[in-house]
Design goal:
alpha+beta
Length: 88
């Protein structure tokens, strides 16, 4: 299939400093240049706008919703699914 997924978490003391964006960019570069992957996927909580901005800035597009797929704070929540094709 030649695809990968990316996930990340940033501690509150390190937020809003661009770390997540740089880390996702580096991961995508490795997936493209070194691993030769075709596609990368990610998921965010529907309300997690900062994480969605990170993905948009790294060329990801939303493509669907996975219902009850993320267990946060003891309850299942929906996730927004993201994709980026790497060899285009």
């Amino acid at each position: 299939m030649r695809r990968g997924s990316v996930g990340y978490w940033i501690g509150s003391v390190a937020r809003n400093r661009g770390h997540a964006g740089r880390a996702v960019g580096l991961a995508v570069r490795v997936m493209t240049d070194q691993l030769g992957l075709h596609r990368v996927e990610a998921a965010t909580n529907l309300e997690n706008l900062p994480s969605q901005r990170v993905l948009r800035r790294n060329g990801f597009s939303p493509y669907g919703v996975a219902h009850s797929s993320i267990l946060l704070d003891g309850r299942w929540q929906d996730a927004l699914l993201w994709e980026r094709l790497l060899d285009q």
